[in-house]
Amino acid sequence: MSTFVLISGCSGGGKSTLLSELQNRGYTVIQEPGRRIVQEQWGNGGSALPWQDMEAFLKEAIQVAQTDYSTAPKDGPWVFFDRGLIDAAAALEELTGTPLLDELNKTHPYHSQVFFTPPWPEIYEVDPERRHDMNAALHEYERLERVYPLLGYQVRLLPKTSVENRADFVLETLNQ
């Protein structure tokens, strides 16, 4: 079983905060491809931005996620991914109709348990890198909620509680 664990779910649901807590506890964390791409595109004047060219953005996210997967430490304790390959591939597949998920899931398997941040409107915020509204976040969440079980993953909803309790929940679930 892979030590690569995905934290996915609804945008603005506290993924990054949870991953910071796990990193503070000594675990390796791989940051979300999308935010890194937005920062890079802004820096070089590129157009592969979700609000400018969604297809180019998602193709770049898949490439970044594949690189993250291949360069992440393979020995030792859990490695936590903020989103990852499946999230980007599911969005691109929905956008273009090009089947990607099955093959990418076979070549890049993650731990069988995926942790989802549920929609949490009370903490949702738009920021320069996340310009979509709560409705778009809910659509994304519903897509991921369908896709992960179809690929054989067990989705575990994170409780709406403190970040410390969420991190404890993740680690206790994985160590069972």
Describe this structure in words.
Pfam families: AAA_28. With 176 residues, the protein is of the alpha/beta class. The protein has one domain (4-174): Rossmann fold (3-Layer(aba) Sandwich). The chain is 50% helix and 12% strand. It contains 7 helices and 5 strands, in the order βαβααβααβαβα. The protein has helices spanning 15-24, 33-44, 54-71, 85-96, 101-107, 134-150, 163-174, and strands at residues 4-9, 28-30, 79-82, 113-117, 154-157. Strands 2-3-1-4-5 form a 5-stranded parallel β-sheet, with helices on both faces. Helix 6 (134-150) links the parallel strand 4 and strand 5 (154-157). Helix 1 (15-24) crosses helix 7 (163-174), helix 2 crosses helix 3 and helix 4 (85-96) packs across helix 6 (134-150). The mean pLDDT is 87.
Q: Unreliable runs, pLDDT <50, ≥5 residues?
A: none
What CATH calls the topology is: Rossmann fold
**Tally of alpha and pi helices:** 7
Please count the beta strands (DSSP E, at least 2 residues each).
5
CATH superfamily placement? P-loop containing nucleotide triphosphate hydrolases
